[in-house]
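Q: Convert this sequence to structure tokens.
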Amino acid sequence: TEGVYANIKKIIVGQDEFANVLKIAVLGGDVDLTVGDTDTLTVIKYYGAKIANSIVENSKLTFTSITPAVASVGLHTGLITALTNGSTLVEISVTTVPTLTTVANVTVTA
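A:
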């Protein structure tokens, strides 16, 4: 016999999509770039058991580079541009829930 598989998405009308989020994290972890390269960060929201994790739209996040001379980042795009050798942290928060935060370690080499 053949199995039947399905993905089920539960949407609660009127509830903030971040209401039950336990944490956010960068997909793929740390970022290594060469000077002149770009990369766009992808952030996942984690709900815990029985609710599927999902990608957060970057427009709903705020991105800030701690050392923008090393790598700049688009405020609501997550687009990192590698500018010079070094390391920086990119702080990421949900714009409407600033207590939901994570960081990405970015290393830039020549």
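The two ends are 56 Å apart (CA to CA).
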